[in-house]
Each structure stands twice: as structure tokens, then as C-alpha cells.
Write a structure and sequence with these properties.
Blueprint: E1 5-10, H1 14-23, E2 29-34, H2 37-46, E3 51-55, H3 63-72, E4 79-83, H4 88-97, E5 101-104, H5 109-133, E6 140-141, E7 144-145, H6 149-161, E8 168-171, H7 178-187, E9 196-200, H8 206-214, H9 231-234, E10 239-243, H10 250-262, E11 264-266, E12 273-275, E13 279-284, H11 288-293, H12 299-305, E14 308-311, H13 321-337, E15 343-344, H14 346-354, H15 360-374, E16 379-380, H16 395-404, H17 417-424, H18 440-454, H19 459-466, H20 470-484
Parallel strand pairs: 1-2, 1-3, 3-4, 4-5, 8-13, 8-14, 9-10, 10-13, 15-16
Antiparallel strand pairs: 6-7, 11-12
Helix pairs in contact: 13-15, 14-16, 17-18, 18-19
Protein name: Sigma-54-dependent Fis family transcriptional regulator
Domain Sigma-54 factor interaction: 144-373
GO molecular function: ATP binding; sequence-specific DNA binding
């Protein structure tokens, strides 16, 4: 018999709960109901439903706050919001916060069932895709290093978008590799043999920006002693990458919009129109929708450019990619500087993995170069890390080191080593010489459950300690809960 899917409905109206029960009575779904945000939180700490139906009006906290909490905790369950105050603006805002769909009260029975079944099917297919992709993961790709799940998604989008003519809109924090991503898209396109030209819209003075893009004729302004070709002409036949596009002046945005629409432009001070064939890629470290809302970015330009969105994850969300990238930098700079470094000490690896990296890959690169220039040895120790990484370790980092590295010198006086033994050896000890044989799946499940319990139900921390992807851990947990239902 096929296992039922688990759906959590967070709704404080008992009549509505009864109505939803009637609507879903004949569906192959196990439905749980919670009337407050706090009771929903407690439920989600112990269970991972396949879908959450969330009312925005709750008696203790708002549905928006609960949605933000769900996303902050890393709970992978998709959320469908139900509200009596529906509007396009509300829907857009909720989607930005992480909701996948939006229902307005009163909810029609067919609409409710269709929405739930569609999202459950989408989640099922996504799980199949991730399982399939796990056999074909790439540890590096066109300048990127790392095989984490978030980066696999980036690689897939580049693969799909590269051969097309569509404009790609890259978003991500400073230092995440947005220009690397743009070059990868260019290299995946039929224009790979043509020019790739990048311009940083935030690094050039406003009064010179138009000339940088379109060029100028001799005498167009003071200092224009000769005619100059802009990046628009330089990129003809290839790709023009507009980095930090949200920094561009509004008046120039208007001219850029016309250029993108027609492929035509005039040099500053000129009266001759030129035509080029360009593929546009743009990037920003800001929230472009927020820039539109604040009137700093033209809405028509946003929708013209925002054809294929491509978010680059921050380094702190990339798990063991941090160590892979750091090791690549370490071996490269050690060779350049004639140093002996080949690896990081186990306790240093934990510090690197748990540091939040506000400057992302660029900061990590600078940290490793600093280490190699100022120190030498076979393995990088914690003492060789520059500030703020070499500051006193937090309790969480000490616990992680003790649990992950029984050889570390920090484990000797750490009582957490007992917990390490509990997690690492789920098989019961016995005085008998007869071996205790148990199915591998049972051992895996017991180890995971003990680790989650040790982490007070925090699945993300458990995934870090077990060195597996959080999404993999959530899927296993979800499958066990479904079997028990």
C-alpha cells in the first residue's frame, strides 16, 4: 500500500479546520492541525511534513513570522499561505519570503485539493531529481569549486541558460563569484569564441558611465581628446556583463533599456546610430525587487533583464565546499610562495566550516593567502589563522571539534567525547565473542536519530556533525515518519 503524505495545516478557526477535514477526507493524506504558531513550531521540531498550509492570521504570532522561522530553521517543507487579505502585492511579498503558492479565503474545495496534490507531486519529483543527480554531482565546474547541493543547482541553470540568448540576472552577496558565473554562462554559449566584456556599474563615476558603455566622439566633453569605443561596441558578437547593475543612475537606466530593446546606441556627443549584437548578463548584490520598490531601479528595466534569475548561494551555506575551496587555494599559494603547506589540521577545518564568511569566497581566498605568506608547515593550525578566525572558539565550535575529531588535542579534556562514542558506535557492546550483525539501514537510522537527539532536534546541526547534506537528512527523516504514519 502506498504511504500517505503528511500535511500540516496551521489554522486557528475550528469551523475552517472542520471544512478542510471534509475537503480532504478522501485524499491519501495524513493531515495534522495546529491552532497557534508556537504549537506549529513544536510540531515542526519533531516532524517534517511534505507540505504546510499556513494561515496568516494566528492568535499568537503572524503567519509571516512563522514562515520566516520555517525558512531560518532550514525546514524543507514547502509552504502554501492562506489569507483573507489576498492581493498581488501580498502574494509577491510572500513568494519572496519563501512561500510557493497563495490561496485566498474562502478556499474552494477543488482549488485546495489541486494545490496540495500539485505541490506534493512537485516535491516527489524534486526528490527523484535530487536522488538522480546525486549520482552525477560535479565537484568543480568552469571556475567554480565545490559539489554542494546549492552549487549543483547553479551548475544546472548555467547548463540550461548558457546556450540560449536569454538575459541572465545573477544575484548574490559580494564575493560569491558572480563574475565567475557570468563567464561560465558565456563559455557555455555559442558566443564562447567572441568577446566577454565586464563593467562594474558601481566603480565608475556617474558622469563617465555613459561614455564607458557607449563610447564618445572627440570633443564630446572636456578631456575627450580622441574618439573612444565603449564596452557596447567592444562586446559586439559576444557577451556584455553589467555587474552591480542596481548602482546605475536612473537616467542612464532609461538609455540602457532602449539599447537592450533595440540593440542600437549613439556615442556621447555623436549623432550616428550604431547597431550591435550582444548577449546581456547582469548581476547585483542587492535585492532588485527592493530597489524597484524604493524607486532606485526602473521596473521596466528589471522585467526586461530578469528573464533567467540565478541566485548564487553565500559560502556559509555551501557546507564542505568551504574546505575544498580553501584546500585548492592553500596548495596553489604554497606552490607560488615555496611553502610546505598541504592541508588543514582537523580542528582548523572545523573553524573554517563554522565561520560565517561575510566576505564569502573572496574573504576565504585572502585568509588562505595571509596564512601562506606569514607561516609555514605541513598542516595549518588554529594559531596560524588570522583574526577574527583565531579568536577564542565558541562552545559550539569546541563541541563540534570534539565530536568530529577524536584525534584532536581539544578532545582530551572535553566531556563531549562520550557523546562522540555514543554516535560513532551505535552497535551494542557485548562481552560475547559472537559478532552482533544488524542491517546497515538500522544502524544508519539509529546513528542519525541519536545525533538529532543530541542536537536537541536541530537537523541542520546534526547534518553538520554527520557530514551529510541537510536535504538528505530531511528526506530520510521524512521517509521514516511517513512509514510510521
Amino acid at each position: 500500500m502506498k504511504s500517505k503524505c503528511r500535511v500540516l495545516i496551521v489554522e486557528d478557526s475550528l469551523p475552517l479546520i472542520q471544512m478542510y477535514k471534509q475537503y480532504l477526507a478522501n485524499e491519501p493524506i495524513n493531515v495534522a492541525y495546529k491552532e497557534t504558531g508556537e504549537s506549529a513550531k513544536q510540531y515542526l521540531k519533531e516532524h517534517t511534513p511534505h507540505l504546510i498550509l499556513l494561515d496568516l492570521k494566528l492568535p499568537d504570532i503572524s503567519g509571516n513570522q512563522l514562515l520566516q522561522w520555517i525558512k531560518k530553521q532550514g525546514i524543507p517543507s514547502p509552504v502554501v499561505v492562506v489569507t483573507s487579505h489576498g492581493s498581488v502585492n501580498t502574494a509577491v511579498e510572500l513568494m519572496r519570503q519563501g512561500a510557493i503558492d497563495f490561496l485566498e479565503k474562502p478556499v474552494n474545495a477543488d482549488r485546495l485539493k489541486t494545490t496540495i496534490n500539485n505541490q506534493l507531486e512537485r516535491s516527489r519529483l524534486q526528490g527523484l531529481v535530487e536522488d538522480f543527480q546525486s549520482n552525477f554531482e560535479r565537484s568543480s565546474y568552469r571556475g567554480f569549486i565545490g559539489g554542494s547541493l546549492p552549487m549543483q543547482n547553479v551548475y544546472r541553470i548555467i547548463d540550461a541558460a548558457g546556450p540560449s540568448k536569454a538575459t541572465v540576472f545573477i544575484t548574490g552577496e559580494s564575493g560569491t563569484g558572480k563574475e565567475v558565473c557570468a563567464e561560465a554562462i558565456h563559455q557555455q554559449s555559442p558566443r564562447a569564441e567572441q568577446p566577454f566584456v565586464a563593467i562594474n556599474c558601481g566603480a565608475i563615476p556617474r558622469d563617465l558611465m555613459e561614455s564607458e558603455i557607449f563610447g564618445h566622439v572627440k570633443g564630446a566633453f572636456t578631456g575627450a581628446s580622441a574618439e573612444r569605443k565603449g564596452v557596447a561596441a567592444q562586446a559586439d558578437g559576444g557577451t556584455l556583463f553589467l555587474d552591480e547593475i542596481c548602482e546605475m543612475d536612473l537616467e542612464l537606466q532609461k538609455k540602457l533599456l532602449r539599447f537592450i530593446q533595440t540593440g542600437r546606441f549613439q556615442k556621447v556627443g555623436g549623432n550616428k546610430e550604431e547597431r550591435v549584437d550582444i548577449r546581456f548578463i547582469c548581476a547585483t548584490n542587492r535585492d532588485p525587487l527592493e530597489e524597484v520598490a524604493q524607486g532606485r531601479f526602473r521596473e521596466d528595466l528589471y522585467y526586461r533583464l530578469h528573464v533567467v534569475p540565478l541566485p548564487i548561494p553565500p559560502l556559509r551555506e555551501r557546507g564542505n565546499d568551504i574546505l575544498a575551496i580553501a584546500t585548492r587555494f592553500l596548495t596553489r599559494y604554497a606552490k607560488e610562495e615555496g611553502k610546505k603547506f598541504r592541508r588543514f589540521a582537523p580542528e582548523t577545518e572545523v573553524v573554517l566550516r563554522h565561520y560565517p564568511w561575510p566576505g564569502n569566497v573572496r574573504q576565504l581566498q585572502n585568509v588562505v593567502r595571509n596564512i601562506v605568506v606569514l607561516h609555514d608547515g605541513d598542516a595549518v593550525s588554529i594559531k596560524q589563522l588570522p583574526p577574527p578566525l583565531n579568536e577564542t572558539l565558541s562552545d559550539h565550535e569546541i563541541r563540534a571539534i570534539a565530536l568530529e575529531n577524536p584525534q584532536s588535542s581539544l578532545v582530551t579534556d572535553t566531556p563531549e567525547s562520550d557523546a562522540k562514542e555514543m554516535i560513532a558506535n551505535p552497535l551494542p557492546s557485548a562481552a560475547s565473542t559472537e559478532p552482533v550483525i544488524r542491517p546497515l539501514c538500522d544502524i544508519e537510522r539509529e546513528a542519525i536519530q541519536k545525533t538529532i537527539a543530541y542536537c536537541d532536534g536541530n537537523v541542520l546541526k546534526a547534518a553538520v556533525l554527520l557530514k551529510i547534506s541537510p536535504s538528505t537528512l530531511y528526506r530520510k527523516k521524512q521517509a521514516w515518519e511517513t512509514d510510521e504514519a
